Amino acid sequence: MLFHLLRALGVNERVSFHYQGARFRLFDTTLTHLMFFHASRWHGALDLRFLRKLLRPGDTIVDIGANIGSHAIPLAKSLGETTQVYAFEPHPRVFAQLQANAALNRLPNLHLYNLALGAHAGEVAFTDVRSDDYNRVAPVGAGALMAPMTPLDCFEPLATTPIDLLKVDVEGYELFVLRGAEATLTRTRFIFLEANAFNAGEYGSSVQALADYLRARGWILYRVVSSERLQRLPEAPVVDEWENWLAVRSEDALRERLTGQGVAILSDDE
Q: What separation in angstroms does the CA of 84 have from each of 126, 187, 256, 266, 268?
């Protein structure tokens, strides 16, 4: 009721609320609604619970598909100024909301870029659904707006930087982002990414192709079942809708990070 009243009065964007230790504007977007009404129960809050166990102060984090900052802002704030967070959001309206949320929190270690990442440089067609902030690269190649795109390997501020966490949530476009990050992946410790079976299919890809691409480059894959449980991904993963995966270079490095954090690491048949 409160939100609907504020929206009817046209003042909801002047209001801020606390979420995961940070402040956010009360925008009329799907993601903001989840953060405001379901602050501890929706999947993004569970993501953060796990990522805070995995990450350490001083890490470098790259958030591709940052949206309004639901992950980048709380992580930049809770991990402190020695942690550097690079957040990419290509949609101009959503990026403006990301900027507004970042400004509330005054984070010198958070770096924002209004840019799409993919396999090639140039421009890419993007959707523009005003009632939903889950806009994405237009699967049919013709969108409501054009957004600048670059491969992550060509992004100069990160040209030689070791990356502790690469987070990729781009509504089925993940494989194309990774194809533009071949060199970057060689100096990346962990990848946290969404595997979305339906959306990947709209780009002519699949979750199997995503798993095969990473495994061919030496990555070990786990399902993030919950913030307390990882399970080794089978060779032929079945994803009903979507799920989060964690890709690691070294099981030893993973166990070192998660020792004492209350996270069970299971084989694919447990």
A: 28, 16, 21, 31, 33
